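Hi F.,

I've been meaning to write this up properly since the lab meeting, where we talked about keeping a consistent format for the predictions we share between groups. The idea is simple: the sequence comes first, exactly as it goes in, then the structure tokens exactly as they come out, then a line or two of notes. No screenshots and no reformatting. I'm using this chain as the first example so we have something concrete to point to.
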Amino acid sequence: MQFTIIWLDGTDDKALERRLAVREKHIALWEELLASGNMWYWAAIWDDDQNMKGSILIYDFADEDELQTYLNKEPYVTGWVWKDIQIHKCNTRDPWQFNRPKEFFDNRNK
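Output, unedited:
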């Protein structure tokens, strides 16, 4: 089952501090999700000054319980980095279309 999740950071004075405190654990977990095939595609969401203010991701989990298991251990969730979390079931048509070689993307803006 596929899910699109939009995660928005907190906007308080301690938001960046919370992000940096758990960033390494967050990245390690995402590496696991990439290797397992659960995380398909992601993008940073930026504010007008190109500061990161959240993320949008497409995941594939067996069911909602498996998604919840991930959410329960995601450091940006448990560490209160992401304050606004929107979860939507989705269906990515032809997901392999995103698996283009690096050269394709390197040459896009030339």
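Notes:
DSSP finds four helices and four strands in the chain.
The two ends are 37 Å apart (CA to CA).

If this format works for you, I'll send the rest the same way.

G.
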